[in-house]
Amino acid sequence: MDKQVRTQRAPLLDERLEAAVAMAVPCRICADIGADHGKLSAAMLCRGLCQHMLVSDISDKALDKSRVLLGNLHLQDQVTFAVADGLDGAKLLKEPLDTCFILGMGGETMAHILTQGKAVLHGAALILSPQTDIPLVRATLVDIGYRLRREEIIPSGKRHYVLMRAEPAAPGERVYTVEELILGPVLVRERPAAWEAYLRREEQYAITAVTAMEKASTNKDPERLAHFRGTLSLVQEALRGFEKE
After folding, report:
1. Which residue in 100, 34, 104, 42 sits closest to 75, CA to CA?
2. Whole-angstrom Cα distance, residue 41 to residue 158?
3. Which is it for the CA torsion 167, 92, 55, 84, positive or negative?
4. What is the pLDDT of residues 66-99, one digit of tens each?
5. Whole-number Å distance between alpha carbons of 182 and 137
6. From the CB of residue 195, how many other CB atoms can be counted at a distance below 10 Å?
7. Phi/psi of residue 11, each to 5°?
8. In what order do the strands lie in the sheet with 99-105?
9. How far apart are CA 91 and CA 79, in angstroms?
């Protein structure tokens, strides 16, 4: 099947996955960790953005969806399927990764995957979209020697997703401040229009959390309360910047 036909048959992507693919650059070996339905992998191959995909999921049942989709597109010869935890599937590859997608999972899980699998990255570009604990993911990137090169806010339905591209840090490149870890170093610098709506949502979440913890008569967690108060202060300061524009 030629490339044009495959491209015509490739599945449509939602806004978040389309933005993730747009963050990629042509490469040889790419990984989709937590691939599930395999649509992102199909798009990367059908569009000629990579030559070989590692399609990995911790669930064999979930990976079956990818096997069916990529098989129907006659792409199976360009795929290594792996039922694996995190980045363990990269050990099956004959060449090192160039690009690695990790999307649609909690930030704590993502941070664990990056920490445990850093030895198999070999400087691969990382395209990430954590659902929660985003500051933790940013801090983990610093810990494993990476820095953020792009950050985007992607509206999709009623949600706003944070999408990141990270690459190995330059020699001597500084670490992030607390403000940058919480708000995003690229977002703080570039202040994209979609960021305001995202910050409004984060403001309401932080207000709700602070109010609930302040009203609680038992099981108070001073450290957690201080964290949310600090986050709220930084978010509101960023929002004031939009009000001045």
Report:
1. 42
2. 25
3. negative
4. 999 999 999 999 999 999 999 999 999 999 999 9
5. 10
6. 24
7. -65, 150
8. 79-83, 50-57, 27-33, 99-105, 125-130, 159-168, 146-156
9. 14
